[in-house]
Automatic annotation (TrEMBL):
Gene source species: Dreissena polymorpha (Zebra mussel)
Protein name as catalogued: G-protein coupled receptors family 1 profile domain-containing protein
Entry's transmembrane regions: 12-36
SUPFAM superfamilies assigned: Family A G protein-coupled receptor-like (SSF81321)
Record-level Gene Ontology MF annotations: G protein-coupled receptor activity
C-alpha cells in the first residue's frame, strides 16, 4: 500500500503539520484543564470527576493515537 507521501508529498507534509499542531494544542488545553481542576476547589463532585476523566482520556488520545497516526502515514 502506498503512503500519502508517495501519492502527493505536499499533501502529506500538510497533513503531518496539521495533526502535529492539533496534538500540541490538545496536550496544552487538556493539561490546563487538569491543572485548574487540581488548583481550584470550587468545582466539586461529579462535574470535577467528569471533566478530569475526559481531559485525561483526551491526553491519552493526543499523546498516543495521534503520533501513531503520523507514523502510519509516513
Amino acid at each position: 500500500m502506498r503512503s500519502l507521501f508517495d501519492i502527493n508529498y505536499n499533501l502529506g507534509v500538510i497533513y503531518v503539520l496539521i495533526i502535529t499542531l492539533l496534538s500540541i494544542a490538545g496536550i496544552a488545553g487538556n493539561s490546563a484543564i487538569l491543572y485548574v481542576m487540581k488548583k481550584e476547589p470550587q468545582v466539586k463532585g461529579h462535574a470535577r470527576l467528569l471533566m478530569s476523566n475526559m481531559a485525561l482520556a483526551d491526553l491519552c488520545v493526543t499523546g498516543i493515537a495521534n503520533p501513531m497516526c503520523i507514523i502510519g502515514k509516513c
